[in-house]
Write the structure tokens for this entry.
Amino acid sequence: MNAVFPNRREAGKKLAKNLTVYANHPQATVLGLPRGGVPVAYEIAKNLNLPFDVCLVKKLGLPDHSETAMGAIAEDALFHDYSGNITIIDEDTTQYFGVDEEQIKAIAARVKAELRWLACCYRHFRPMHKIRNQIVIVADDGIATSLTMHAAVNVLRQHQPQKIIIATPVASLKAIQQLKAMADEITCLNTPRSLSAVGFWYEDFSQITDQEVCELLAQETHQTLAESC
């Protein structure tokens, strides 16, 4: 198939056109899932004139095939009223590949450490945006499985937002069906029955670096400070 989106930021602009009802909303904020969802979320926020931040979540890869997800984990320490962490495990996958509980714990511990590092990297110069009573638009660059988004929505629910809206340029039909019960709304531009790889839907799907994430967060911070002066 031919790629649909030139890059993640252009995909975010297209998503923003489907979310204009929330433009300039005083109680709405946009969160991106690192790293690929961050430029998508940035463009949504920029085009709708909304605050922008990240929701830290990472997949748990199989022991011998780290690119294949068997679960996901979201660190809750960055939010107010810290209450632990959220871990989602796909038991069908772990059983099929024979992954035992000790292996899952070891991988989860490593990923938690990575999330703590990311929290320090992304937030050393800025506080987390308020979540409680907010309309939260949480964005990713694509959803092949629902695991990372599932973890993100679970951790956000703990902080009692007014509404959670999932926004993504492309997601498998199965993932959308699984997430419908969790989110208040879903905005997705393409829902193929089979989604072998999110990258096939982009002309440029180059890896996003931590530096790029920090630069986008810094741009949002500078804009917020300028508007408050």
